[in-house]
Write a structure and sequence with these properties.
single chain; alpha/beta; TIM Barrel; 17 helices; 8 strands; 51% helix; 14% strand; globular; binds adenine; binds zinc ion
Length: 338
């Protein structure tokens, strides 16, 4: 077995996945037809051809357009179920999923339909696929904090279905500090906290996410490497970074996979792990991300093992559940020769 196969067959967690970013063009087209929504593309091929981005904003413009097809609870169920079935093929046994309620409620879709459909699929995945999950509600950072606070209010009846809050969308110009109040409310409610930081934005945004929002994980974190003091702080605190190599390539955060900072992160004592971010848009699910960095950087077995371990230790599973998952991984690794 080579290292790519070793990683592909390993039990793993995915901790950075936007459910709306797993919307495959085939399902998007079928749903557009059944919902009577007109897409600005004539075919699946035309949609795929449009997936050429030179930065985060170009991607987000198309991502929000794709979402417009999602109207009813069943749509959110079908979207989530499709991802979970695909994740099972990649031996994902635990996933922590982001959703963007504001991308839907601002179009008149009911919050209860969004979260109802997603949650039903997550419950079915536990039953039928043996995949456990957490659900993380993201605030769109290009909108105001008042808007995020209204969404927080709307979410109150459903807090038992929500494990954490996050921050996504256009990073530059929208620092984490803008969302300090809503994150404080989420923290007081006992939710987990994460934020996208250092994808396109400067190291200062990573500091703000840590100090002002008090996040437990950094999503991406690539640009943290520009600040030595920050790297030391992240290493000393054991902070997990949810890293997304194919996303970084597609959004021109890096210009070649051989320049991906994943090894630098590991060498600096950080705790990165690998994810697909928006797999339908970026050309690959989680195993494709492992394969891409293993190939481009010639990762060692120890490095791949560290990434797989971090996928569980960085999760919001309980200590007991983490120990269980790590035991599964360890027993797999001792049986496998690569
Ligand atoms: N929303 C979906 N994917 C995202 C990403 N990679 N960065 C910021 N916001 C996002
Ligand atoms: Zn993301």
């Amino acid at each position: 077995m080579n290292l790519i196969e070793l990683a592909a067959n390993a039990p793993k967690a995915e901790l950075h996945l936007h459910i709306e970013g797993s919307f495959e063009p085939e399902l998007m087209f079928a749903m557009a037809r059944r919902n009577g929504v007109k897409l600005p593309f004539a075919s699946v091929e035309e949609i795929r051809k449009a997936y050429n981005f030179s930065n985060l904003q170009e991607f987000l413009d198309i991502y929000y357009q794709g979402m417009s097809v999602l109207l009813y609870s069943q749509d959110f169920y079908d979207l989530t179920w499709a991802y979970l079935q695909r994740a099972a093929e990649d031996n994902v046994i635990h996933t922590e999923i982001f959703f963007d309620p504001q991308g839907h409620t601002e179009r008149g879709v009911k919050f209860s339909d969004v979260i109802g459909g997603i949650s039903r699929a997550l419950a079915d995945a536990k039953q039928k696929l043996g995949i456990s999950s957490k659900l993380i509600m993201c605030f769109l950072r290009h909108l105001s904090e008042e808007d995020a606070l209204s969404t927080w209010e709307e979410a109150q009846p459903f807090l038992s279905l929500i494990d954490g809050v996050g921050l996504d969308s256009s990073e530059v110009g929208h620092p984490p500090s803008k969302f300090k109040n809503v994150f404080t409310l989420a923290r007081q409610a006992g939710l987990h906290l994460v934020a996208h930081a250092g994808e396109e934005g400067p190291p200062e945004y990573v500091w703000q996410a840590l100090d002002e929002l008090q996040v437990e994980r950094i999503d991406h974190g690539n640009r943290a490497l520009e600040d030595r003091k920050l790297v030391k702080h992240l290493a000393d605190s054991g902070m997990c970074l949810t890293v997304c190599p194919l996303s970084n390539l597609k959004l021109c955060v890096i210009d070649d996979m051989s320049k991906h900072p994943i090894r630098k992160m590991l060498d600096a004592g950080l705790k990165p792990m690998l994810n697909s971010d928006d797999p339908s848009y970026f050309g690959g699910y989680v195993n494709d991300n492992y394969a891409a960095v293993i190939t481009a950087l010639n990762l060692t077995r120890d490095e791949v093992t560290a990434l797989l371990i971090n996928s569980f230790t960085g999760s919001f599973l309980s200590a007991e559940q983490k120990a269980d998952a790590l035991e599964k991984l360890n027993s797999y690794l001792t049986r496998s020769t690569a």
